[in-house]
Design a protein that fits this description.
heterotrimer; A mainly alpha (144); B alpha/beta (327); C mainly alpha (501); A: mainly alpha; flat; B: 327 residues; alpha/beta; ten-stranded mixed sheet; 11 helices; 41% helix
Chain lengths: 144, 327, 501
């Protein structure tokens, strides 16, 4: 399984190398004062990356366990939660969005409901106070 | 086990739906200035000039917020104001000549200079042509003659890439002596400080910088300023520096520091800001603040400033086409 | 000759200024310890405050310098405890610092790194006091060609990090360099890999990169450990709290060498704490790591970057105070602070404002003593962070990551980017990559390309400029030696016995 993962990675990296190379070649340069220009470096890198990924496909290394289905779901859950946090952050303000997301994250990490809610409330409002008054950082405020 | 995933996810989806309809949360009614850069740069300085000035002269009561929104020398903030906070009456955004250059080059995306409401400029700095104290050129004419003979013998350096306002200074200077800007030797550094260090280390011969960043080197006598790119001689420690025009070269490069507001801001809110700035510019306390930041006086507000910026952008567009930067 | 320093201590030892040095050190430690919130924020935020409070110039500068040095101390904490670098200079600190914490040695690791920070900073401050004007002249001798040679040297010294999977190390470094090419090309102004998004014009921000790569991927890995109830990933109970004298003494050579190296790199305008940490770590690995224990929790691997990043922080004051040219982003902000007081740092500063220059240097001495006194006894308290349950720790990391990125950008694109980089970092770690080469490639690659092209722009394409000066020639020879000697020496050693027989 791990061997296959490295092979997949190698193929994906070859794709990336091709993409960066094509993208670099299509740059339009009005003029450049140095003979190297902006294309050479990304081009060289994509060639290097292509070669290295060929080696990776031929001689894959070892790597760790992959998540089972339940873990994968939980990982996606965390990512979705962080994405939701990003969307709520400027809309509901720091304190409220943080409170909700902290409580939900704590639940995902197996805290009991009372503990999760207490963490959410304390950390969100404590954080709000610390950041704005203690450190003078501007954060989105309350929505009303 | 399953509930640990399902509940938060459901809760989150619900909240997301609810909040997407409510729009952006407003921090407060306090005035805010967006510095379209990281902390510490020229835009930060521009915002703090307005913030400290208005507070210390009593024109506003609560401190003004300064928010950072770096990206594309102002492009991110420009798009933000044109797309998200289009009518916020308490929001101003710092801008400068560099923003006008980028507008002219179309680097601010789909928007051009006529989109926003230009409020005013509170200060200005001027470009300068700098060589080391032991350089062979005593005045601009000698440098230009050397450049006309063989442009490859003189390496210019400044704190910005081709097409930036730092590069424009070098390109315009060359152009005023009928030297093709493309035939120059030009080195782009990360900021004026690095370029100045390269000049002191003899890696480049000419540095096209800004007057205000040269004060300490002028005092110590390490550098010689061949020309100030100003309309007329500036005051203070720079009074001895001749302008380029005096020496027969038609180059001016003022770097104004000003502000704009969103496109849908009401006329009243806009006018209120214009008046605040007009009062500020006449205040003596503010003059001290401005001087402490190395800026020279400039007072251009409301429609005058709006026209000034638009003219400038049009001029830069022509210029960019002339030097082959755009078609 | 040292009148300015005597005057400076007179200034710095007044109760007000002593108090400000203490406050600055404390706040700085806090700013540095929070991932994503670094000394630049601390200084940019407190600068107007100090000005409005009407503090005199030297007092304001003492407060701000305290924050700067404090942040370099604070940055190591989350590196060691959470495997998330607190600031730019602390990336290499994770490599041996976190494994030490996993062995139950968080307390000694924090203590040792405090000592290393102190020694590095002290070396640099002494260097600053004695040689500042001289060093300023040497620093400007570093032009594009010399910087390019320095970067070649740095990359070749990275070859020691190849470890057991050289292909993946190399791929990681290449990916890092590629990420570094995103944004406006600094030479021609051409946009590379920005896909028309203005948010990408300035490239991928360092803070977004570090937080995504380390903090977000760490959250995902923590979930995995929690899910599997991995016994081997449970942290052992906190053992001893204090670092022993023996451990400190074992690192004395490393700390001294790294301090000097870090100081020199800090003095050069354009290279800062992250480069200093990287070069010192790889150099020490080359010099002292005979049994290949670097990366598995070797005290010397922790001491090297910590001594170096603190030394480089103090070193970057040299170009600022003597030339008026900032050696780092943070000193650029400090420069702005001084200008508010109508003081222009530069060649005349030591004669025109000796109380400011001297006061600053004196306060650096005092601030470092304060920080050592603060950090050594508290190591045990900070180490308690490890006993915080995951359901508190993970939300805290998430909130800090968001606040750190949001206050820098006020923009959601940066947050999305952070999350994408986080997933990328998680995948890399699952696939057996180390993150250090990615970060190093990202930091060094851009400097390498820019300086190569600058050098060739100066010479008009003539490549001989790259090895014309003595400095660059020396660096080239050192770089080649680094690459060739490990192959050559064993070969020569082998040949000799065979020739005898």
């Amino acid at each position: 399984m791990s061997l296959a993962a490295d092979r997949c990675l190698g193929i994906a990296l070859m794709g990336l190398a091709a993409f960066t190379a094509v993208n670099a070649l299509s740059l339009e340069v009005p003029f450049s004062y140095d003979p190297v220009g902006p294309k050479a470096f990304p081009l060289g890198l994509s060639i290097l990356l292509g070669l290295l990924s060929v080696v990776l496909v031929i001689r894959p290394g070892e790597n760790g366990h992959w998540p089972d289905k339940r873990l994968a779901l939980r990982l996606i859950g965390v990512l979705a939660l962080l994405l939701v946090y990003a969307l709520l952050f400027p809309r509901l303000g720091f304190a409220i969005s943080s409170m909700l997301v902290i409580a939900a994250l704590a639940r995902l990490f197996e805290a009991s409901w009372p503990k999760a809610i207490a963490t959410g409330v304390l950390m969100a409002f404590g954080g709000q106070w610390l950041f704005t008054h203690g450190l003078g950082i501007t954060l989105p405020g309350l929505p009303w | 086990m399953k509930t640990t995933i399902a509940l938060p996810a459901g809760l989150a989806a619900l909240l997301l739906g609810a909040s997407l309809t409510t729009g952006t949360a407003q921090a407060s009614d306090d005035a805010e200035c967006i510095a379209p850069a990281k902390p510490g740069g020229g835009y930060d300085l521009t915002c703090r000039l307005a913030a400290n000035g208005l507070l210390e002269t009593g024109l506003i009561e609560d401190p003004m917020l300064v928010t950072y929104m770096p990206g594309g020398i102002g492009a991110v903030a420009y798009n933000h104001v044109n797309g998200v906070r289009t009518d916020d009456p308490n929001l101003i955004v710092a801008a400068s000549t560099g923003a006008a250059v980028n507008l002219a080059l179309g680097k601010f995306g789909q928007y051009d200079a006529s989109e926003v409401r230009w409020v005013g400029a509170l200060g200005v700095d001027y470009g300068a042509i700098v060589v080391k104290a032991d350089a062979p050129w005593q005045n601009l004419e000698e440098l230009m003659t050397a450049l006309q003979e063989d442009p490859t013998q003189v390496a210019f350096g400044a704190g910005g890439s081709v097409g930036s306002q730092d590069w424009m200074k070098a390109a315009l200077t060359a152009k005023s002596a009928d030297v093709d800007p493309r035939s120059l030797r030009y080195v782009a550094f990360e900021g004026g400080g690095e370029a100045l260090a390269a000049l002191l280390g003899n890696h480049i011969q000419v540095f096209t910088g800004d007057l205000s960043e040269l004060k300490s080197q002028l005092e110590s006598g390490d550098i010689r300023v061949l020309a100030a790119l100003a309309e007329e001689r500036v005051e203070g420690p720079y009074a001895d520096i001749p302008t380029a025009a005096e020496q027969g070269y038609d180059v001016e490069w003022p770097i104004w520091r000003g502000y704009y507001m969103g496109p849908e801001v009401s006329d009243e809110a806009y006018q209120a800001w214009v008046e605040k700035f007009e009062q500020l510019a006449e205040n003596d306390t503010f003059a001290e603040l401005r001087e402490a930041r190395g800026l020279f006086p400039m007072a251009l507000f409301g429609d005058d400033f709006d026209g000034y910026v638009k003219d400038q952008v049009a001029e830069f567009k022509q210029l960019a086409a002339d030097v082959g930067l755009t078609q | 000759m040292f009148d300015f320093l005597i005057e400076g201590f007179g200034v710095a030892l007044t109760p007000l200024n002593l108090g400000l040095a203490f406050l600055g050190a404390l706040l700085g430690t806090l700013f540095g310890a929070l991932p994503g919130i670094g000394p630049i924020n601390g200084i940019a935020i407190l600068m107007p405050l100090a000005y409005t409070l009407g503090l005199p110039a030297e007092s304001a500068l003492i407060l701000l310098a305290g924050i700067y040095t404090g942040a370099e101390y604070g940055g190591r904490m989350s590196s060691i405890l959470l495997n998330v670098p607190g600031d730019a200079g602390a990336v290499m600190t994770t490599l041996d610092g976190h494994p030490l914490a996993k062995k139950g040695l968080a307390g000694p690791a924090l203590g040792l790194s405090a000592v290393a920070s102190f020694i590095g900073a002290t070396i640099a401050i002494i260097g600053l006091t004695l040689f500042a004007p001289l060093l300023a002249r040497v620093a400007v001798m570093f032009g594009p060609a010399e910087f390019f040679a320095l970067m070649v040297f740095a990359f070749s010294s990275m070859s020691v990090m190849m470890g057991k999977d050289p292909i993946k190390t190399a791929i990681g470094a290449v990916l890092g360099v590629l990420i570094g090419t995103v944004g406006v090309d600094s030479g021609t102004g051409v946009m590379r890999y920005t896909f028309g998004m203005p948010e990408l014009y300035d490239g991928i921000d360092f803070v977004v990169m570090i937080i995504g790569l380390f903090a977000i991927s760490e959250i995902l890995l923590m979930l995995e450990h929690a899910h599997r109830k991995d016994v081997d990933n449970e942290l052992p109970p906190l053992g001893r709290v204090f670092v022993s004298l023996k451990e400190v003494l074992a690192c004395k050579g490393t700390m001294l060498r790294s301090g000097v190296l870090g100081f020199i790199i800090g003095v050069l305008p354009g290279t800062g704490a992250s480069v200093a940490g990287a070069v010192s770590y790889t150099t020490e690995k080359r010099l002292v790591d005979k049994d290949n224990t670097f990366g598995t929790g070797d005290m010397r691997g922790l001491a090297a970057p910590e001594a170096a990043n603190n030394a480089s922080a103090a070193g970057s004051f040299v170009p600022m105070l003597t030339l008026g040219i900032p050696g780092s982003g943070t000193t650029a902000v400090l420069l702005g602070a001084l200008m508010l007081y109508n003081i222009t740092p530069g060649p005349m500063m030591f004669s025109q404002n000796p109380e400011v220059a001297g006061g600053l240097i004196a306060s650096l001495y005092i601030g470092n003593l304060v920080l050592l006194a603060l950090n050594l006894p508290l190591a045990g308290v900070f180490a308690k962070v490890l006993t915080i349950p995951r359901w508190v720790l993970v939300p805290a990391i998430a909130v800090l990551s968001f606040v750190g990125v949001y206050q820098l950008h006020s923009d959601l694109t940066a947050i999305y980017l952070m999350l994408i980089i986080g997933v990328f970092g998680y995948l890399l770690r699952k696939l057996g990559f180390s993150l250090a080469p990615v970060i190093l490639g990202y930091v060094l690659g851009g400097l390498m390309e820019e300086n190569l092209r600058r050098a060739l722009a100066i010479s008009g394409g003539d490549t001989s400029i790259l090895w014309q000066s003595g400095i660059s020639l020396g660096l080239w020879i050192a770089a080649i030696a680094l690459l060739v000697l490990p192959w050559l020496v064993p070969m020569l050693l082998k040949r000799r016995p065979s020739a005898q027989s």
